Amino acid sequence: MFAVVAVMFLAVGAAFAQENTITVEGTGIVNMDPDLVKINVAINNESRSIQDAVNNNTEMVKKVREALIEIGLSESDLITTNFSLWSGYLYYMDENADPEAKKYTVNYSMQIVLRDASRLNEVLDTAVNSGITSIDTVSHEYSDRLAMYEEARKLALADARAKADTIADELGKKIVDVVTVEMPDYSEASDMRYNMAAREGMGGMGGGASTPEITSGAYQASARLRVTYLFE
């Protein structure tokens, strides 16, 4: 009998707790000026000789890396992201070509990590004029992402509590405890990306080119929490 009464008591208590809860969502958004830029570039070249294609690409890559290091970038911030080699028949581009003739294309992709966003155009100009053949993306970021996330989460929790307090006040109640906390999502994004596609047959942009001014906007982190409170 005691066991049955205890079970009934727990069931009633659970139902009571469920009736005296409120669930709200809170959102926190943090905007920071980006202090880190990641530039994805590529060096592509082609030749009818596989040896020439590879050797020419090696020389072009060396020239670009040396130019970037010369202006103060660290070797560790010049990260190889891809190296590939493929062949294709010339006939598909020139119907007068020998059906068996091939061309070889080499791609070397690199990510440049720039830790001083104010030097972006200087670095882009150096990369362009030293031999890269494409700029794929330029993305602005904030280096201390964890700090941004923590701040966004705190703001989301404060927002949820403020909403719960408002509703409880309207009902003549008071928040007394937190029952559950869920985090449906967290996101971060820069509001700026810059793209430049490679042009067929370019052996490096070069020629004393000057890149356009690129502005970053803000780097944003947001957090959303779903919180269930107990009130009385």
| CATH evolutionary superfamily of the domain at 36-142 | Protein of unknown function (DUF541), domain 2
In the predicted model, the low-confidence regions spanning at least 5 consecutive residues are 1-17, 191-204
Q: Could you give a short account of the major beta sheet? A: 5 strands, antiparallel
In the CATH classification, which architecture of the domain at 36-142 applies?
2-Layer Sandwich
Care to describe what's here?
- The chain is of the alpha+beta class and 232 residues long.
- It has a domain of 107 residues: Protein of unknown function (DUF541), domain 2 (Alpha-Beta Plaits, 2-Layer Sandwich).
- Helix content is 33%, strand content 39%.
- The protein is built from 4 helices and 8 strands.
- A 5-stranded antiparallel beta sheet has the order 3-4-2-5-7.
- It is elongated.
- It starts with a helix and ends with a strand.
- The relative contact order is 0.24.
- The N terminus is likely disordered.
Give the tags.
single chain, 232 residues, Alpha-Beta Plaits, five-stranded antiparallel β-sheet, three-stranded antiparallel β-sheet, 33% helix, elongated
Summary of the model, kept short:
This protein has 232 residues and is an alpha+beta fold. 33% of the residues lie in helices and 39% in strands. The strands form 2 sheets. A 5-stranded antiparallel β-sheet has the order 3-4-2-5-7.
